[in-house]
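User: Please fill in residues for this 293-position structure.
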């Protein structure tokens, strides 16, 4: 049975709710890294709701997601899991291309086009990463990242049922990516939405399996699992947004805290460029927090 498309009124309600949440977190954060960290720690208007949602996600994870991931690990060998992940990632390459074009990154977009072409053919639909062996490294690119490049604030930290840590900007980006995904469009046009459901489930189970030890260790050793998950997920996302490059220091980064504001401060010469090279952003990213729960 095909699921009916949401009405325009329902779509406007969802968009209005996301916009309201986005505006709720639009207080201008400080540019200094230390001051910004304090600001983000204290600026959490949705924390009570987030903690309740986290409890729900942990319950769903305990009875469904984690057991499914454990069965997946027990049945599918590591080589098979890696091949499946490569194939799922290959299906996301067109969205990566579109978003890198929107971000003004033609070189990254070209690399992703090359990866998709090579891996979809010689790589057997992405099961093999032939392009990576040829020096075409995996790129990042999603519409939440595009909105970041365009200057849209992320809004307050959110924990979404099933999907996990996010924010209004990334939720808008996720919906847009699903809409512009050629595979989603093709599945809808051919009335084979079941393929998209299977793809979504496999991707979720695979991600949960890859983070299973990290999340177990985090839950056992964290005094506050919510705070630790928030910190790690935000660090990981910050690295993704900049393609793995470190953020530029704020204007007060070199200010000696022992000096009064009126005293002159010598500022080291800034590097000529901090533009990231077209490589994937995973290498320099901090330990990941799971996208589930």
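Assistant: Residues filled in for all 293 positions:
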């Amino acid at each position: 049975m095909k699921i009916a498309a949401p009405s325009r009124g329902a779509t406007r309600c969802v968009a209005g709710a996301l916009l309201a949440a986005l505006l709720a977190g639009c207080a201008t954060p400080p540019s200094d890294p230390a001051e910004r960290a304090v600001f983000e720690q204290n600026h959490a208007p949705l924390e009570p709701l987030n903690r309740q949602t986290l409890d729900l996600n942990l319950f769903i994870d305990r009875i469904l997601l984690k057991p499914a991931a454990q069965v997946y690990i027990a049945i599918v060998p590591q080589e098979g899991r890696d091949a499946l992940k490569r194939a799922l990632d290959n299906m996301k390459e067109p969205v990566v291309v579109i978003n890198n074009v929107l971000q003004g990154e033609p070189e990254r977009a070209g690399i992703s086009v090359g990866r998709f072409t090579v891996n979809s053919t010689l790589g057997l639909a992405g099961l093999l990463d032939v392009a990576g062996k040829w020096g075409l490294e995996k790129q990042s690119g999603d519409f939440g990242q595009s909105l970041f490049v365009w200057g849209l604030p992320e809004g307050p930290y959110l924990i979404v049922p099933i999907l996990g840590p996010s924010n209004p900007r990334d939720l808008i980006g996720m919906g847009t990516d699903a809409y512009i995904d050629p595979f989603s469009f093709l599945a809808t046009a051919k009335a084979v939405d079941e393929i998209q459901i299977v793809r979504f489930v496999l991707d979720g189970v695979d991600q949960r399996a890859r983070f299973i030890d990290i999340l177990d260790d985090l839950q056992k050793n964290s005094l506050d699992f919510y705070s630790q998950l928030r910190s790690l997920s935000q660090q990981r996302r910050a690295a993704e947004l900049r393609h793995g490059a470190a953020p530029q220091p704020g204007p007060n980064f070199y200010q000696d805290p022992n000096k009064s504001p009126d005293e002159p401060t010598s500022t080291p010469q800034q590097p000529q460029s901090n533009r990231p090279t077209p490589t994937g952003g995973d290498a320099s990213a901090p330990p990941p927090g799971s996208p589930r729960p």
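For context: Confidence is low (pLDDT under 50) at residues 1-27, 253-258, 265-277, 281-291.
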